[in-house]
Write the structure tokens for this entry.
Amino acid sequence: MKLLQAMRAGLVVALGLGAAIMVGQAQAQAQAYPGKPIRWIVPYPPGGPTDSFSRPVALKLSEALGVPVLIDNRGGAGGGIGMDVLAKSAPDGYTIGLGTSGTHAINPALYSKLAYDGIKDFAPLTLAVAYTNILVINPNAPIKDVGELVAYAKANPGKVTFGSAGNGSSNHLSGELLKSFTKTQMQHVPYKGSAAALTDVMGGNLTFMFDILVTSIPQIKAGKVRALAVTAPRRSQYIPEVPTMTEAGVSGFDTVGGNLWFGIFAPAGTPRDIVTRLNQELVKALKQPDVREKMAAQAFDIVGSTPEEFMTVLRNDHANWGKIVRESGSRID
């Protein structure tokens, strides 16, 4: 009996020591992180808005963590290739990446065969910035506000045209949402990029389009297009005289399709302590004056959220944008 009790006592001690060793190893690993360079995946080619956003933030993160944070551009499939790489990377904190409302809220409904799950395959780190589309029209058109645009579309079914960067892009879906809310018939004209569509709005070949602020504001100030409304829930600090779609008479538009954002993710399964560390350093980076200046140059509104807050936005937008995509009939096989 005494021998059995001794063996049991020895087993308890061994288990306790084993647990203590495991906890100690985990703590040591957390304290050691990061111990090597971190890869930051950008799911679009160099030079675009996602790349321009990522580089200054990655530099600040590198300075804070004391290791290189290396940009890895993986463009293609509307951001899907890069997001697939991120989703399949080891969840150890050494691969993170930029996602957008397009890659995580729109693509899951747009692509019939998507290699990743926009929610389950990722650990949100922070909602980084928000931005808005703006409805612009040729200044010579006999339309002064959204109400007049809707009235004209109803009086001329099928004759109103709107351009976009392509099927399933946010400016395409903003147009589809306007059609749905106002029960109007408008003709979508997809382009290979929004710049060509904006050129045709200025030239009078399109009735209107929804565009991002950074490219439209210079044309608005030059008098080459007229701004009617922004899609965001609030007026933009960059062009505060322009009303929201709700203020312009399309009530509820902003609550369904007004959220456009960039966010930073890690692969699902990344340890909580590493997620917390990355969140804290990323939010600090976003608040740096030189980073804020660069974000303002792109007409971005800095957010900087907790992972939990970001997940709430992600789930809501996944549902809202998915509904818009399905109702528009857009699919990419």
